[in-house]
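User: two proteins, same treatment. go.

Assistant:
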Amino acid sequence: MIQIEENALTQLQRLQQQLAQECIGLRLIAKGDPCSGIKVDMGWTATQQPDDVLYRQSGLVFLADRRQWPLLKDCQISLAERQGQPGFNIQPQPADCHCSHGSCSPAQSTNCPSTASVN
C-alpha cells in the first residue's frame, strides 16, 4: 500500500481537481538501480499502457509498469521543496541489490541509497 502523508494527499487531490484535461491518474516511474539509488518520477497521465498496474487509493489512481510495481507499491509520498519550489518526495521501497560491500535488502536499506525526485 502506498503511504501518502495527509498534507501530500490533500495537495494531490487539489491538483487533480484543477486539471484542465481528462487524466487517468498519476504515473510512477522508477529510474536507476537499487545499488546506486532509485529515483521516482510522478506525473499525470491520460493513457494506460498494456503492462500497467492500476492502484486506487483515497480517490487517486496510480499507474506503474508491472515490472516496476514491486518497488513502487510500498512507496512513501510526502510534500517537499527543492530549490525553493514546492513538490513531492517519493521514497521507493528499498530493493535487494548486490553492492560492492556485499548485498543489501529492505531490512538493510541503509546500505543501498534510495533517492526520489521532487516533482
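Protein 2:
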Amino acid sequence: MSDDIDILLRKKALELAKMKTKEVEAPKQRALTGEEAVEIIKRITKGDRAGEIIENALALYGQHAVALFKKLAELHLQGVINELADYELYQVLLRAGMKVPVKTEIKIVRHGREYKLGES
C-alpha cells in the first residue's frame, strides 16, 4: 500500500516538474518594432558596405525588407546568428528576391595615375 502511494507521489511530482519546465522554457517576448529590428541589424552587421546595403534595401523594398530584418533580429536574439558580414546580408537579401544596388567603382592605376573606368 505504501509502495502505491510512493509511486503516485512520484508521478505527480514528475508531472509538476514537467509543467514548471514548460512555463520556464517559453517566456513571452514582445514583438520587435521595425526600427528596433533595423538598429539590431545595423549593430550586428560588419563591413564597409553594411550601412549602404541596409539603407538601399529599406529605400527600395520598405516593409518587405523590414520583415526580413525582423526575422534576422529574432534569430540574433535567440543566439542563432552572432554577427553578419556585409556580403552575407547582401546574399540573404538577394536570395529573398531583393536585388539591392551597391555603388561600384572600377579604378585602373597606370604609371602612378588613377583612371576610373569610363574616363578617357
